[in-house]
Amino acid sequence: MTTQPAAPFGRVLTAMATAFHADGSVDLEGTARIATHLVDHGHDGVVVSGTTGESPTTTVAEDGQILAAVKDAVGDRATIVAGIGTNATAHSVELAQQAEKIGADGLLLVTPYYNKPGQAGVLHHFRTVVEASDVPVMLYDVPGRTGTEISLEVYEKAFELEQVVAVKDAVGDYARGVKIMQMGYALYSGDDVSTLGWLAHGAAGVVSVVGHAAGDQIRAMIEAFRAGDHAQALTIFTRLLPATDAVMGVPNYGATTAKAALQLLGVLDNRNVRAPLVPLDDDEVAALRAGLVASGLIP
Fold first, then answer.
1. This prediction's pTM
2. What SMART domains has UniProt attached to this entry (predicted)?
3. Active site residues
C-alpha cells in the first residue's frame, strides 16, 4: 500500500476572493460569507489575502481585518492561511507578525515580484520573513506573476527552516516538483488545470481558484484519486474543464472571475473589484455562466 503525502493545511483549499462594497471599501460580512460558502462546500481550508484576494491593493490594516473576519467565521472548522508575501521584506514581516497575532494557521509567502531579486535575495527574503513568526509557511512559486522562479538550491536551504513545510506550485514542471517533494515539502497545485497531474506525481492537494464554484467536485476528484479510482478522478476533472477554462480564461482571471462566479451562485450580490482590476463585463459573465453550466455547477 502506498503512503499518502502529508497535507499540513488540508487537501482542498481555495485562494479566496475578498468582497468589496460599491465604494471600494472591504465588505467583511461578504468576505466571511465567501469563506463560509467554501467550507460548506468541500474545503479543508482557505487562503486569504492572496492575489485572488486582491492583496496588492489592500492595506496591512485591511489584511488584518479580513483575516480576523474569516477566522471568526470558519476558524473552528477550517485551516486559515494568510497571504503575507509582498515585494518588500519589511512589509511581509509586518504582515506575518500581524497574522500570527490574529491566529492564522499558516502563511503563504510568494517570491518577491517586479523587483526580481536574485536567488540569494529570494532566500534572504524567505529566511527573514519565516523567522519573524512561529507560524507554518507555504512558499508560493509563480514565475508567471513574479518573474522569478525559486531555484532547487533555494528550496533546499529554505526547508532547513523549521516553519517551512509546503509549496504552492504554479510552475507546472512535474519532474521538478517531484524533486521538491523529495526534499520533504508538501506540494500543492497552484493551477487548477494541473491538479490531477500533480496528484499523480505525489502532491498533497490544491490551492484552487475554481474552488469558488466547484469545491465539492474538486474534493470528490481528490478523494477518488486517493482511493485508487483514477478513472473516476479523471471523469470529474474532465467534467470541470469548461468551468476551469471559463474561470481561468480571461486576461484578469482570479479575483474577477471568482467574484462573478460567486455572484452567479448567489453568494455575493455584486462582483466589485478594486482598480486596476475591472469587473467582468456582461459578455464575459455570459461566457463564465456558460462554462459553469457546462460543468453542471449552476442550472
1. 0.96
2. DHDPS
3. 140, 168
Mean pLDDT value of segment 261-281: 97
Closest to 79 measured CA to CA, from 53, 41, 49, 105: 105
Of 11, 12, 9, 2, the closest CA to residue 210 belongs to 12
Query: Is the residue at 281 inside a domain?
Result: no
Convert the pLDDT of each residue in 9-28 to its tens digit: 999 999 999 999 999 999 99
pLDDT per residue as tens digits for the range 198-213:
999 999 999 999 999 9
Range(s) of the domain holding residue 77: 12-217
Cα gap 238→168, rounded to integer Å: 23
Spell 233-253 as b/e; 16+ CB within 10 A means b: beebbebbebbbbbbbebeeb
Tell me if 268 sits within 8 A of 280, measured CB to CB: no
Q: How does pLDDT run across 175-193, given as a tens digit for each residue? A: 999 999 999 999 999 999 9
What 3-state DSSP class applies to 283? helix
Residue 226, in any domain of the structure:
no
With contact defined as beta carbons under 8 Å apart, do 148 and 117 qualify? yes
In a domain, 229, yes or no: no
HSE, CB side, 13 Å, CA atoms: give it for residue 65.
15
How far apart, in whole angstroms, are the C-alpha atoms of residue 77 and residue 84?
22
Strand (E) or helix (H) holding 29: helix 28-40
- Whether 52 has a binding-site annotation, put simply, is yes
Q: Check whether 195 is labelled as a binding-site residue.
A: no
* Nearest-angstrom CA–CA distance, 131 and 233: 39
Domain-embedded: residue 234? no
Residue 248 main-chain phi, psi, to 5 deg? -100, 5
